[in-house]
């Protein structure tokens, strides 16, 4: 055991042997400086990379001219909407969404409409003009109202065909633990219309000379389908 301890102490203290070598050769570079030099060489590229990343990470703001051009292209002018209106007029077939007493109907010329109420003031054969329209378009173009389209831009007429009524319906109502039975009768009346014509009018010359400002307020959007 004593021999092992003496051997371990001699192994754990190697600097006693190298002290004379370090004193005799002071001009040579010491061994403990080599790891420091290697560490400095390894860290210098990392510092350069971090500096380049910091420089490139700064955002580049676009010039103000590009923003103004994109905003101007997004909003169409009144003259463009009037040109699209003339293109819509040249379409062969058109449709319209009309509102009659809160009920919406999408129709084309020749369609038949059954209204769930009776028009008391209308007679058979009368021609009615429908002025409240929310959508007017064709296969390639669509015009939307704000909330309704200006009635000067179109003419939609319908013919009153007849005022009909459904068959009489009877319904029996009875409550629990009672011997009485109540009979309720109902017979709803309807009005039948046929869409006679759908015409898109020309823009008045006075309005066109003024830039279409009065009609543009009644057009919520007019765009071409793609």
From TrEMBL:
Family: Belongs to the bacterial ribosomal protein bL21 family.
Stretches the record annotates as Disordered: 54-73
MF terms (GO), sorted A to Z: structural constituent of ribosome
CC annotations in GO: mitochondrial large ribosomal subunit
Record's protein name: Large ribosomal subunit protein bL21m
Pfam assignment, any one: Ribosomal_L21p
InterPro entries documented for this protein: bL21-like (IPR028909), bL21-like_sf (IPR036164)
SUPFAM superfamilies: L21p-like
């Amino acid at each position: 055991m004593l021999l092992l301890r003496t051997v371990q102490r001699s192994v754990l203290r190697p600097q006693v042997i190298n002290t004379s070598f370090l004193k005799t050769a002071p001009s040579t570079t010491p061994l403990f400086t080599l790891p420091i030099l290697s560490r400095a060489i390894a860290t210098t590229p990392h510092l350069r990379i971090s500096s380049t990343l910091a420089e490139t990470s700064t955002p580049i703001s676009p010039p103000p001219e590009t923003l103004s051009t994109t905003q101007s292209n997004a909003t169409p002018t009144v003259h463009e909407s009037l040109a699209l209106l003339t293109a819509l007029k040249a379409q062969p077939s058109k449709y319209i969404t009309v509102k009659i007493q809160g009920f919406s109907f999408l129709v084309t010329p020749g369609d038949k409409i059954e209204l769930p109420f009776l028009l008391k003031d209308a007679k058979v054969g009368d021609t009615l003009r429908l002025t409240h329209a929310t959508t007017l378009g064709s296969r390639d173009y669509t015009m939307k109202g704000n909330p309704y389209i200006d009635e000067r831009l179109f003419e939609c007429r319908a013919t009153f065909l007849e005022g009909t009524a459904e068959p009489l319906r009877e319904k029996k109502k009875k409550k629990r633990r009672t011997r009485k039975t109540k009979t309720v009768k109902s017979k709803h009346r309807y009005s039948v219309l046929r869409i006679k014509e759908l015409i898109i009018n020309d823009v008045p010359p006075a309005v066109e000379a003024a830039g279409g400002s009065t009609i543009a307020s009644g057009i919520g959007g007019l765009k071409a389908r793609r």
